[in-house]
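note to self — DONT lose this again. spent like an hour looking for the file last time. sequence + predicted structure for the chain T wanted, 243 res
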Amino acid sequence: MTSPDDREWQRKHKDRFFEPWRVPVSPKMKKLLNKIDYVLRSHEVLARPRKRTRKGDAQANFNEAVSALVCDLTHCVLIGHTEGIVLTRSIALLSVKSRYKPSFIGKTLPDILDLMADPKLSLIRQEIGTREPGAKKGNLTKIWPGITLERLVTEHDIQLEDIRYRPPTECIILKSTKEGYWDQTQAINYDDTPETHSMRTEMQLINDWLGRANIGFNQSLAQVDSPVDIHNRCLIPIGGDHN
């Protein structure tokens, strides 16, 4: 998923991080997701029987995580992004609670990825990240749309307008200050105050207005070959910690 720290890495390394904030907004896209849900459930029953069925929040989180993965990878198909998207499978990182992370992304994400990457389903392709002995950081996992997902996108005639980028739950980001030129800033937690509540309300109103704004784009006049997603619009203010 794209955290504030991921965006800095992305700028430097040209990688596209998983964006868990894309959601289906059309009957066509919801029908595609229902199809995938049926396929996953059927496959689990036949090939990967679970000792306990998911219930309540666990099932809801599973559904939202699958939806987010499918929507973001579908977006890759539609805009012609073929380099894949990166994300972490680290249980330690996925288990950390953060105001910047969606609640439905947790330690079960690797299991969901493995299920979707099963060759019998081919919903995604994945290259699991590795870490060399003694290295501080390893390579992140990279995933691509699988042949089944690409086929479903075509069969259901999915277009960019069938998916929306919803503003992240936390739209006020606080980042640490650099101690030196080579330091990387980190997104840090903070205590809410009347000021942060006011800023968040203001940004939510602005992003809601942007989401409803009548914005058009003539692709035929564009200087780029790949489609432009005019629905990917939200503002996220980033502040520095000066304490």
